[in-house]
Amino acid sequence: xxxxxxxxxxxxxxxxxxxxxxxxxxYVPAHxxxxxxxxxxxxxxxxxxxxxxFNKGLIDALCDIVPxxxxxxxxxxxxxxQGMAVMEKTIRYAREKGLYVIADxxxxxxxxxxxxxxxxxxxxxxVGGTECPVFDADCVTLNGYMGSDAIKPFLEECxxxxxxxxxxxxxxxxxxxxxxxxxxxxxxVYTVMGDLIERWGKDTAGKYGYQALGAVVGATHPSxxxxxxxxxxxTFFLVPxxxxxxxxxADVRYAFDELGRGAIINASRSIMCAWKKTGQDGLDYQxxxxxxxxxxxxxxxxxxxxx
Length: 307
Hints:
Elements: H1 2-13, E1 17-21, H2 30-40, H3 44-62, E2 68-71, H4 73-77, H5 80-96, E3 100-107, H6 111-121, E4 124-127, E5 130-133, E6 139-142, H7 152-161, E7 164-170, H8 177-180, E8 183-184, E9 187-188, H9 189-200, E10 213-217, H10 222-231, E11 237-239, H11 249-252, E12 263-267, H12 269-272, H13 285-301
Parallel strand pairs: 1-2, 1-12, 2-3, 3-6, 6-7, 7-10, 10-11, 11-12
Antiparallel strand pairs: 4-5, 8-9
Helix pairs in contact: 2-3, 3-5, 3-13, 6-7
């Protein structure tokens, strides 16, 4: 299964982190913006071109440090079709550089709509007699609160194409308590979802013991991480909320098993926007991102040993 591929890349680099590629135009250094705007003007095309150059530079700077990147589709949809073209190019470029790509799309629809999403993001679109890969990510994020109908088409693609998906279980945002912490019988909702994720992914475990469906569990809830790690032994965790949102290395250590496996920690702004703290006007954005990623790796090493 695809989580075997991710775990191998994590072990290779001794680094269980994923760099989020969530670029707003204001995150892009001025010298990159200037070049793109001179060619395309202050237009969506100009913004998309600047983001593409920024993404390429970040991927080049990070590809030997982090095992994975996670572009968030909202930041690309925000620029219309030009932005979605950049997302497609970003996924392709990252994979060419040997990175595992998690497309953060949080889709959660049903029936033929879910099938279309699954084909577009993980599988192929059939055009006459030809099967055409579209975004071709290694993994996606999903919202399972519409039930198994929203997950099955993605799971089928995961099994057929050696890919994977993370399903929202306990998210890092403060208002997650409004639903996810509600009591449902003898459980709370996030444990119900965690149990469903393991049930839906049954019989898809790879050599490391993790199933094709993982769970999103926020770094800002360390006690929940500890609880769900004990409860969901076959579930790989994606842990957002590190850095800018307040999660620390001490918090996220609970996401890992006794061998330091089974989880990947996301940081976005703290890596992408590291250049804003150096006083070099973004001319050193690659070096700044690289240093931030190395610092995060070293912080995690204090608590996590990957075997």
